[in-house]
Each structure stands twice: as C-alpha cells, then as structure tokens.
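INFO batch 0412 | record 1 of 1 | parsing
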Amino acid sequence: MEPQEREVFLEGPDHFLDIVYETIEAHVRRTGEEYGQVITGVGSAEVGDVEHETESVLPVYVPATVDPEEALELIGLALDRIADEHNMDLARQNVQVSFEEGTLEDE
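INFO prediction complete | emitting tokens
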C-alpha cells in the first residue's frame, strides 16, 4: 500500500520553528485544509522552552501525490509567509528543508 503522506523535515532555529508549528497546527485544526496549499499536518514539537541559540527539527506532512520539487517550493513559500507575518526573515534564511529519504534542499 502506497503511503498517503510524505514526511518533510524542517531544520532551523527553535524560535522560528515554534512559530511555524503553532501557525500550521492552528490553521489545519481551524480550517481542516492544507497550509500553503500542501502541508497537511505538523509533527510533535517542543512548545514552550524555546532557545534562540539552538536548532531543532520539525516534521511536516505533505500528500504523497504532490511532486517533490513542487512540495519543496510550496513549503518554502509557506515558510516565507510565516516569516513575513512574524518579522522573522533572518531566522527563515537558516531553515533547511529535507525529505525523509535524505535529499536536502537549502531554502
């Protein structure tokens, strides 16, 4: 059976990924729709004790039917939008996006 979702990992500053988690989780829960046209959900994240100096990894989920290149582009646009809304452009520049298979895309 083909998986219905593909896991994508965001690696970057804790304080930015905390905002990403909260934004995506709230949107998906409130609307029942994808965030940024492609993100169907977000994995567990440490919410609370967020360090500005440390980095972590946040898993997000996209439909397996979406082309990987398109998924990376749409995730990048979603991260840009979150950064703009929270005035966190510098932190956004330090986020790397990779698929579970290990292909790495610097955003």
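INFO post-check: The longest helix spans residues 14-31.
INFO record closed
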